[in-house]
Amino acid sequence: MQHGLGAREHQHRGFISTGDDVLIGRVITGTRSDDGKVLMRAIGQMLGAAGVSDPLQDPTLELVAGEASFFGGLRRIPYLAGVSPEIALDRVAQEKRSEVAPVAGIRDSFPSLQRRQGDAAVAYFDGPGGTQVPRAVVDAMSDYLLHHNANTHWVFPTSVETDGMIAAARFALADFLNASPNEIAFGANMTTLTFHLARALGRGYERGDEIVLTELDHHANVAPWRALEKDRGVTIRVAKMLPETGQLDWDDFERQLSARTKLVAIGAASNALGTITDVQRAAELAHAAGAQIFVDAVHYAPHQLVDVRGMDCDFLSCSAYKFYGPHIGILYGRHDLLAALDVPKLLPSSNEAPERMETGTQNHEGIAGAAAAVKFLASLAPAETRRASLEAAFAGLHDRGHQLVRQLWNGLSEIAGVTVYGPAPGAARTPTIGFTVGGVNSADVAQRLAAGAVFVSNGDFYATTVVERLGLAPDGLVRAGCACYTTEEEIERLIAGVKAIAKKDQS
Fold first, then answer.
1. Quick one: 121 and 186 in the same domain?
2. 423 shares a domain with 339
3. Do 364 and 398 fall into the same domain?
4. Is the residue at 210 inside a domain?
5. Domain check: are 51 and 158 in the same one?
6. Which of 51, 406, 425, 481 has the most CB atoms less than 10 A away?
7. Is residue 366 domain-shared with residue 502, that is, in the same domain?
8. Which range marks the domain in which residue 473 is found?
9. Are 489 and 471 in contact (CB under 8 A)?
10. How far is it, in rounded angstroms, from Cα 131 to Cα 314?
11. Where does a domain end: 351, 377, 403?
């Protein structure tokens, strides 16, 4: 994904020279003397993208009436017409700040990556079940507990500090989701928050009202709504998945909608297969039918930056421990909806949204950690605002994840006896792959890989219906997920480990 100048001038990236300041393509700001090697590399990349052979032979440049001209017979590449050098300097300086941190630097933030199994460093591919945690997150939680620990809404300093920390965390998670701080509620986990929301919404449902689910969903986005069948007499309708691609059957989804539909509950991404579902399309269809939409973004949020405004969802939930934070859940709801819900609550507790969604004393250190996880992600690509930093960081991490999942998919696909499931690279997906090794139990595969310091998960991952539809119950899948700290070398270790298991089973 290109962003900033690169997005606006994807086919004609240019540069401009003003004295010693040199602007190249979409990311580089520097000087001839200090950044010469970086400058030459950037010129080469830019010209190579423009189709110039052997681009480093003549990188001489000059400013000519709003476009860059290369001597030595090199083609001319248009610049942004009418943009002054001062504006160009500012824009490209922003883009330099948006470059995502290198993997080696990211890995330095995770003490757990120093763990060794025998002679090898552990390669963690269990991120879809919970990522490793950077030092900054643990430090934030420790700092709260050691120096600010108190309950809320009293007048002494540590209580006031706790109130301030929670308020700041709402701002951080609002930036993470593109929401407003008064639309962010915290809870034990996504499952607990979803049951709580379901009970509140269910109080307004009548017998015969309908809720639409999908076969792709984690059962945390199934059981809370199924409970309303018993409690409120609602009808549950389920849209099918396409087993051959691991994607939603949109024709069947539309068939499930009716004038009786009150809610669509849908996952933004499958935690078993990595499938990304177009929830904006689902929201349009749900709203056209007069229904609300709840989005399970637990597996989506670590890999694609959530935009609740762009999705046009009414409610959304995610879990901080899937994006480098502690075990705590986050619920977004449109403020007017949160304020109007008939939510089960204690009479003396606040009736203001979003606090009215939070039962009892919250996990304050977890809230501090969730905010720190957002800050950590934003720190990977500093920009003018936290949201802009997150956009840049996720763009860069998405590109890396795409390369890693392609490497993993291709490597596993070439092994005799191994079957990979879900959308192929190039389709909308996360860097998570589910696979099986013919004739070998998924737990045995995971155990043998763990002996070689490669940690993967196995089973159905609470995506029980997905595994059933693939005909893999009760054994399930082996699942490998890439995170911001995953390296190409770790991918090769995983592929080699699976190859050895498959070969041994066949011999």
1. no
2. no
3. no
4. yes
5. no
6. 481
7. no
8. 107-132+385-506
9. no
10. 27
11. 377
Phi, psi of 267 (to 5 degrees): -85, 140
Is there a single domain that holds both residue 265 and residue 283?
A: yes
- The three-state DSSP-derived secondary structure of 74-88 is CCCEECCCCCCHHHH
Predicted confidence (pLDDT) per residue in 261-271, tens digit: 999 999 999 99
Would you list the DSSP string of 458-484? EE-TT-HHHHHHTT-TTT-EEEEE--T
- Name the residue type at position 276: I
CB 238 within 8 A of CB 213: yes
Are 128 and 142 contained in the same domain? no
Hey, is 181 helix, strand or coil? Answer: helix
Cis peptide before 102 (omega within 30 of 0): no
* Dihedral sign computed on CA atoms, order 393, 398, 399, 400: positive
339, exposed or middle or buried, with CB in 10 Å at 0-12, 13-18, 19+? middle
Whether the CB-CB separation of 226 and 237 falls below 8 Å is answered with no
Q: How far is CA 268 from CA 220, 273, 280, 290, 430, in A?
A: 13, 12, 9, 20, 10
Task: List beta partners, residue 267.
Answer: 296
3-state helix, strand, coil in the chain (%, to 5): 45, 20, 40
Q: Report the distance separating Cα 389 and Cα 383, nearest Å.
A: 5
Cα separation, 360 vs 152, in Å, equals 11
pLDDT of residue 106: 97
Paired tokens of 478? 């082996």
User: What pLDDT digit, counting tens, does each position of 266-300 carry?
Assistant: 999 999 999 999 999 999 999 999 999 999 999 99
pTM of the model: 0.82
Give the domain CATH number at 500. 3.90.1150.10
The whole-angstrom separation of Cα 69 and Cα 351 is 64
Handedness of CA 170, 171, 176, 178 (dihedral sign): positive
Does the residue 102 lie in any domain? Answer: no
If you average pLDDT over residues 126-147, what whole number do you get? 98
Tell me how crowded residue 450 is: count the other CB atoms within 10 A of its CB: 14
221 and 358, same domain (yes or no): yes
Residue 370 has pLDDT above 90, yes or no: yes
User: Would you say 432 and 451 are in contact if contact means Cβ atoms under 8 Å apart?
Assistant: no
Number of folded domains in the chain?
3
